[in-house]
Design goal:
Keywords: Cytoplasm. By secondary structure, the chain is α/β, with parallel strands linked by helices. Helices cover 48% and strands 18% of the residues. The protein is globular, with a radius of gyration of 15 Å.
Length: 151
């Protein structure tokens, strides 16, 4: 069964629900979990306007660290062996799903867990959903956790 679970987090309610499911699966299978946050500053170009892009990038990285700390705390409380990883850049701009799949391959994950409605802003309308991209690009099992709460 599963021994290594890659959990994609982004600080959204859907990612929190995905974390809950990853904990359930990890407890049942004795798996370790790697929580992954992919910081994509490509959103900065959609939001920049008169803002300093460096400040926006710093805010994205801070949000990533916060999401990973929250995930690590819950995993530790559940007694799940885990690591966290903040990837500061996707494999190419806007390619969060490809980056998640590549990390799952690199880390030799047996399962990818992620939420279906994250915080990716206007690009989701243009480029499609991250979870859908992971599902289409990965040859590994993918557990997608849906949030009924609109974000």
């Amino acid at each position: 069964m599963y021994q290594r679970i890659l959990l994609a987090v982004d600080g959204s309610r859907s990612a929190e629900l995905a974390l809950s499911q990853a904990i359930i699966v990890a407890k049942a299978t004795g798996s370790e979990v790697q929580a992954l946050y992919v910081a994509d500053d490509n959103d900065v170009f959609f939001l920049a306007g008169s803002y300093d892009p460096r400040q926006l990038t710093d805010a994205i990285l801070a949000a990533g660290r916060e999401a990973l700390e929250a995930a690590a705390k819950r995993l530790a409380e559940a007694g799940i062996p885990h690591t966290t990883k903040l990837l500061e850049k996707p494999v190419s701009p806007g390619q969060i799903s490809s980056t998640i799949v590549e990390e799952a391959e690199r880390w030799d994950a047996d399962l990818i867990v992620l939420g279906t409605h994250g915080r990716r802003g206007i690009r989701r309308l243009i480029m499609g959903s991250v979870s859908e991209g992971v599902l289409h690009r990965s040859n590994k099992p993918v557990l997608m956790v849906r949030s009924e709460i609109k974000e």
